[in-house]
Amino acid sequence: MHEAAKEKRTNTIVHPRYGCAIGAVYSVAAIPGAVPLANCGPGCASKQFNFLSKGNGFQGAAGAGGGAMPSVNVGENEIVFGGAKKLDELIQSSLRIMQGELFVVLTGCSGELVGDDVGSVVRKYRQAGKPVIYANVAGFKGNNLVGHEVVLREIIDQFVGQFVGNSKVKKQKNLINLFFEIPYFNTNWRGDFIEMKRILEGAGLRVNVLFGSESGGVEEWKNIPKAQFNLVVSPWVGLAAAAHLEKKYRQPYLHVPVIPVGEEATSAFIREVVAFAGINPQKSEAFIEDEARRYYYFLEHFSEFFSEYWFGLPSKFAVASDSATNIALTKFLADQIGAIPVKQIVTDNPPEKYREAISRLYQNLSDGVSAYVEFIEDGYLIEKEIGNADFSASIPLIFGSSWEMDVAEKLKGLLVRVGAPDTEEVVLNRSYIGYKGALTLLETIYTTVVGRKQ
Q1: Which CATH superfamily hosts domain 172-283?
Q2: Which of 38, 120, 139, 209 could serve as 215's disulfide partner, Cβ 3.0–4.6 Å?
Q3: Which helix (H) or strand (E) holds 284?
Q4: Alpha carbon distances (Å) from 312 to 76, 97, 345, 452
Q5: What is the DSSP code (8-state) at residue 313?
Q6: Do 174 and 207 contact (CB within 8 A), yes or no?
Q7: Taking every pair of C-alpha atoms in the chain, what is the biggest distance, in angstroms?
Q8: E-strand stretches of 268-419
Q9: Which helix (H) or strand (E) holds 285?
Q10: By three-state DSSP, how is residue 102 classified?
Q11: Measured between alpha carbons, how far is residue 19 from residues 28, 248, 439 in Å?
């Protein structure tokens, strides 16, 4: 049994790597034209902003995010007498003042514990034709990944369903809905969505991106039922939404559990998606050929550095991050760089039903290379596990968050930040995935290495 499993379990988590379910206000804020209405205490939404945005690459906020987010600011009066009246007033004011095509009331712990009937408050606006829906995302229900899943389903059922119902919808060939990373939570989500859309469109597909700069916003959500199929690129987040859409609109879905990083993985990913779509591969193969040519042009130049300095470069690595980032990085580093995985820790607390499948992803990472994955949320235990990992004589290379700064320093190792919280970097549209992102990842890793040697 691993040391982390022997530790006495408590209800306290040190150094968490996720927010609570109300953090889904930022899933809504990431939809162009959508306005989140925080039905919670005054500190709840602001703490989510401090962790998911400010403390995670200083991502900032636009539209109705950050300080511009309307909030009930639940206080003692609402706890004692109920908050329905104040929520009603907030909805009225927001519809009058905020520019939005979709308003989502997100109820946190206080509203759910008190038992406010948020549905009845929202219902009269929906009956009046106003684009107002609600989602119950109390923190005691889980983390912000769970909250994100709840929001996906509620928008699909209450908003999208309002326009198309449950009737049969004519599907558009080559149009897909992309379920991918979680806005703000995944530090590089903005750049990753750009690269993912570029790859899929290069392969000949049209993509409903749903979040971020590449999204058509609320109008794009209305087109969800028209897609030929749904694409889930994640170990588990988005699967519930895809399964729900399969039942609701008879849309099949393709699940690709590992985000592609590098030429081999990305080219294989494109071929898998194109085959599932049943389209002519001529365009996708031309795109792959062009991207591969460019990728290996830069990799050939990088190989000179790598071959000359290999004796001083780290050969073993550890990853402590959410499941999507963890397996993507681990596979790329083991299969394409030849690095040896020594400690892989998943920190996002995926539901038990997905854990066996996630663990299997770490088998056969490359020829003769497999890894054991641990599911740990507590920062104290994570630090202890990394601290006891066998890096041998190699310089420890650690992929994690700002919480790993101390253990990296103790081990005299190198830290590459790949997830929340990230308080030492400003992230705009950086990506570590696909063709372009993999080259950026190599730059980041080996700049960190060379910087240390200096």
Answers
A1: Nitrogenase molybdenum iron protein domain (3.40.50.1980)
A2: 209
A3: helix 282-309
A4: 60, 59, 26, 11
A5: S
A6: no
A7: 71
A8: 316-321, 340-346, 373-375, 397-400, 414-417
A9: helix 282-309
A10: strand
A11: 15, 30, 30
Length, in residues, of the chain: 454
Residue 256 to residue 263: CA distance in whole angstroms: 16
* pLDDT for position 165: 62
Query: What per-residue confidence (pLDDT) applies to 281?
Result: 95
Its pTM stands at 0.92
Residues 126 and 277: their CA atoms lie apart, in Å, by: 36
Average pLDDT, whole number, for the chain? 90
Measure the CA–CA gap between 190 and 214, rounded to whole angstroms. Answer: 9
Token digits for 227?
């897609």
Average pLDDT over residues 40-64: 86
Q: What pLDDT is stored for residue 355 in this prediction?
A: 97
Tokens of 30: 């990431």
How many other C-beta atoms are found inside a 10 Å radius of the C-beta of residue 6? Answer: 8
- Selected from 3.40.50.150, 1.10.10.10, 3.40.50.11890, 3.40.50.1980, the CATH number assigned to the domain covering 21-164 reads 3.40.50.1980
Whether the predicted pLDDT of 244 surpasses 50: yes
Q: For 65-96, what is each residue's pLDDT tens digit?
A: 887 888 887 756 656 555 688 888 999 999 99
